[in-house]
Design the sequence.
């Protein structure tokens, strides 16, 4: 696996020379998603867990979350410094390579944490594989939705790639910039993928769901498995989740026909809600069932990563965690250690600093207080963030 990772890193570095390009968006998105997020994120997550605390299946969504933790400070700095896009991409890839080397040479020897066996039987594996395959095929068939937030998001990404600089410039009106958006890590990530793959931003957007939706289903299955402690019950939950949210959608986004978790998973809020949220509660459950205090420091980092993917969903996740904590403290049920849950909620609250800091910047109009609109954000000069 080490040799494969080295080869993938070399392939990513070669893309800067222009001699190495991937004509299909499938391997292009897969390569850069893995190198920019999964590779560094895997080693971030392994640092916090002890032996046999998580299995290989849980590491899939957790590694994606760890990747957003890793990219968060670099993307934030890139926005405030308004760095050239290709320069930042090269420097970030160098940081990933150094992190990979540091883990392989030092951390792996000093913290040789082993993963737990997944322990699924052949029949549960088959059912899970069928659901994941169905989600991938559905996401591939329908693609990312092209209504609602698609217009401002992809237009902003195109402008960033064309201008070659990481800053929030209105794609609709010349010379208008605005504060860093609440999705700064995802914005930087996608702009790097679009610039290095040399695929059109619309193409990348349409092909995104098949790389996100199955991971969200895995995250929800792993959380259900932890809660129910029963593989059959977790599969029943996942089947209901898939049927309701993927095959039935009473409220299509953008007044269109986007299927909520297939087409809509291209949007940033599914990363925050469909992947980060179950992973956060999975870590909470693991802390409550063990004495691993390192997980208390992982929780605020997960919230920071979630906020950098979609800030508003972060506030909803906090609401769920605080509601569960208050309920457990008030009722003191026997099946919940309310003291540990209270401690986990307190440590997780550190991540709120990002919410408050960005809120101070975002709760103001983009250009002119005389403009009034209910349009979605992302660069419209008539939009007010925070409303």
Sequence:
């Amino acid at each position: 696996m080490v040799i494969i990772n080295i080869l993938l890193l070399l392939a990513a570095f070669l893309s800067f020379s222009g001699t190495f390009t991937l004509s299909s968006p499938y391997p292009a998105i897969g390569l850069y998603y893995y190198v920019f997020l999964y590779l560094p994120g895997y080693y971030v997550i392994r640092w916090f867990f002890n032996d046999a605390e998580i299995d290989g299946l849980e590491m899939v969504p957790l590694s994606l979350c760890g990747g957003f933790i890793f990219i968060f400070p670099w993307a934030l700095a890139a926005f405030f410094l308004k760095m050239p896009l290709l320069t930042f991409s090269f420097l970030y890839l160098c940081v990933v390579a150094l992190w990979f080397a540091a883990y392989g040479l030092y951390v792996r020897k000093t913290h040789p944490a082993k993963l737990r066996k997944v322990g699924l039987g052949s029949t549960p594996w088959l059912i899970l594989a069928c659901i994941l395959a169905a989600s991938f095929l559905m996401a591939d068939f329908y693609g990312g939705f092209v209504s609602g937030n698609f217009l401002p998001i992809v237009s902003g990404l195109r402008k960033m790639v064309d201008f070659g600089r990481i800053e929030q410039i209105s794609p609709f009106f010349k010379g208008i910039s605005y504060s860093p958006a609440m999705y700064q890590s995802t914005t930087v990530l996608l702009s790097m993928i679009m610039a290095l793959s040399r695929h059109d931003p619309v193409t990348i957007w349409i092909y995104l769901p098949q790389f996100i939706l199955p991971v969200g289903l895995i995250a929800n299955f792993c959380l259900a498995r932890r809660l129910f402690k029963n593989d059959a019950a977790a599969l029943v939950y996942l089947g209901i989740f898939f049927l309701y949210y993927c095959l039935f959608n009473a409220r299509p986004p953008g007044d269109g026909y986007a299927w909520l978790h297939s087409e809509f998973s291209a949007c940033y809020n599914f990363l925050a809600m469909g992947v980060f949220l179950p992973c956060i509660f999975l870590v909470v459950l693991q802390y409550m069932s063990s004495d691993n205090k390192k997980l208390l420091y992982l929780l605020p980092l997960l919230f920071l990563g979630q906020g950098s993917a979609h800030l508003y969903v972060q506030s909803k996740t906090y609401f769920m965690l605080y509601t569960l904590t208050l309920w457990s403290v008030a009722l003191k049920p026997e099946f919940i250690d309310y003291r540990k849950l209270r401690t986990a909620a307190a440590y997780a609250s550190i991540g709120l600093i990002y919410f408050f800091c960005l809120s101070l910047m975002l709760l103001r109009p983009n250009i002119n207080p005389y403009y009034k609109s209910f349009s979605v954000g992302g660069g419209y000069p008539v939009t007010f963030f925070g409303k």
